[in-house]
Amino acid sequence: MLIKQNLHNILQSIPKNATLIAVSKTQPASSILEAYQAGHRAFGENKIQEMVEKFEILPKDIEWHMIGHLQRNKVKYMAPFVHLIHGVDSFKTLKEINKQALKHNRLINCLLEVKIASEETKFGLSFEEVEELLKSEELKNLKNINISGLMGMASFTENNGIISTEFKTLRTFFDSLEKYKSFNVNPTILSMGMSGDYKIAIEEGSTMIRVGSAIFGTRNYN
Ligand SMILES: *Cc1c(COP(=O)(O)O)cnc(C)c1O
User: How far is the CA of 193 from the centre of ligand 1 (A)?
Assistant: First the structure.
């Protein structure tokens, strides 16, 4: 009941054209089913293994989003079904996704992860690296992927001004990518905002938020 209420409250507070990904990492299948029965279909996981296990036992019309850092050697396990891969931060990974997508005769949508936080530990490409990748001739060979936009995580801070500035900077950069549009570059999705900062992210132009604990409650790990 609580999960359903939380979903409802969040959906009420965001624009109709923004997408809510329910981040179900570490949560049992029963909690995902509870959200599913409330009508929710988009779920996010950060470990490929865990996502595959859940995919196998849960309804097949769920859209699975991979939001975590990718291990290239495991991309093959999710290639048959993954809906959107949020955390792509190298050409090598993109190439592996393309290879696995081709094997399954699929087109896999990907977001490039951009580093916007000041912390050292966060993954992601710089703005320059994103542009280099989008400009590269090699990208044209990847016919089974589509770059659908960007993903970013703000600094872990209580300072809303910093968070807001980081999201604003990413939105501006996202808007500047129009010039790279091509058959496999169609930037329409800006994935930013988590439980603690999705309201700020929405204000700054997020089109997709990834919310876990505000729906399912606090996690013990990860
Ligand atoms: C865990 C996670 C989230 C959700 O975090 P919450 O704070 O629980 O909402 C969003 N994005 C990524 C990349 C995550 O790993």
Answer: 8
> Which pTM value belongs to this model?
0.96
Q: Give tens-digit pLDDT for 55-95.
A: 999 999 999 999 999 999 999 999 999 999 999 999 999 99
User: What angle separates helix 2-13 from helix 29-37, to the nearest 10 degrees?
Assistant: 60
Q: Which residues lie closer than 8 Å to 1 by C-beta, 6 or more apart?
A: none
User: pLDDT value at position 222?
Assistant: 55
Distance CA(144)–CA(139), nearest Å, equals: 11
| 3.40.190.10, 3.20.20.10, 2.170.150.40, 3.40.50.12280: CATH of 2-216 | 3.20.20.10
Domain ranges of the chain: 2-216
How many angstroms does the Cα of residue 211 sit away from the middle of ligand 1?
A: 6
192 lines ligand 1 (CB under 6 A): no
Any atom of ligand 1 within 6 Å of the Cβ of 154: no
Distance 17 CA to ligand 1 centre (A): 21
pLDDT, one tens digit per residue, over 169-185 is 999 999 999 999 999 99
List the structure tokens of 126.
């710089």
